[in-house]
Structure formats: structure tokens, C-alpha cells
Amino acid sequence: MSIEHFNRCVDDHSDGVYRFILKNIKDEEKARDIVQDAFEKLWHKLETVAPEKIKSYLFSTAYHTMIDVIRKDKRMIGMEIIHDEMYSHSAQYTDLNEVLHEAVDKLPEIQRSVLLLRDYEGYSYNEIAVITGLNQSQVKVYIYRARESMKKYIGKMEMLI
User: Fold this and answer.
1) Taking every pair of C-alpha atoms in the chain, what is the biggest distance, in angstroms?
2) Distance (Å, rounded) from C-alpha 134 to C-alpha 115?
3) What is the pLDDT of residue 54?
4) Which residues have CB under 8 Å from 85's CB, separation 6+?
5) Do 23 and 116 contact (CB within 8 A), yes or no?
6) Strand, coil or helix: what is 121?
7) Which member of 82, 129, 148, 160 has the greatest number of CB atoms within 10 A?
8) Could you say which DSSP state residue 160 is in?
9) Residues 86-142 pLDDT 10s
10) Which domains, and CATH codes, for the chain?
């Protein structure tokens, strides 16, 4: 791969990788660092990554780096006590987008990641399996559970109107 092709990859894929990571960790600085790390790893493996696999390689690398950062942060901060109120929604809202973002934020990290890859980025189950290192049936289960959790969180549509 040439330097021009690498620069074109940065132009083509950096925004999508950044959006995906930012949606998961909600920290712009960490998201930028993770995306930069993914492109640095691509740079070091320039000769070994096939051109048709670059997008998948970037998302996969960024995803695994994000998981490492999340685990590192958890060790530093410690686990918080989880209350049932965190996973239910009872107030009335008029902004459906806000409610959806809150519901996605409440999901466990793996469910949030696979759901965002599927519904937000448009990846197939097989592509998500490659990116996350899960098998295809695990991906389907996590997506199903994430959608069920979101339905439970959002509740009845009358609450949203």
C-alpha cells in the first residue's frame, strides 16, 4: 500500500471509526487517541493488510483498543453499585432521540458496541463477528438482548408522546 492510499484510507474511514468509538465511550479525547492508535497500527502493518480489509481492520483494531482503555479505566476507578433505577425509565420525555441515547448508554459495553455496529454503522452480523472477535451467533444474541433492554427501558410509546 502506498502513502497516498494510506492517506485516502484516513480520509475515508477516520470519521466513521471516530463516531463509533465516541458513541461508546463518550470522551472526545480518548476517542481521538483510540482512532489515532488504530491508524498507527495500520501504518505499521501497511504491507500485510489487504486493501479490501482495511475498513474492517480499522474498526476491529479501534474496538479492541477501546475495550483495553475501558478495562484500564475500570481498574483505576472501581466498580460502582448498580441500581435497578438506572435501567428503567419512568419520566415523560418529548425528545425521542434523547430517550434513545439514554437507552443506548445504559447498555453493557459489548451489547452497545454490537448494536451500534449493526444499526448505526450498518455492518452485517458476519462483519461484526470479525470486528469484535465473537462468533456470529453470539453477535445475534447480544443484539437481541440490547434491543430487548432498550424496549424495556423505553417502555410504552405513550410515555414518549
Assistant:
1) 56
2) 13
3) 86
4) none
5) yes
6) coil
7) 129
8) T
9) 555 555 545 777 878 888 888 888 888 898 888 888 888 998 898 888 899 999 999
10) 1-80 (1.10.1740), 82-155 (1.10.10.10)
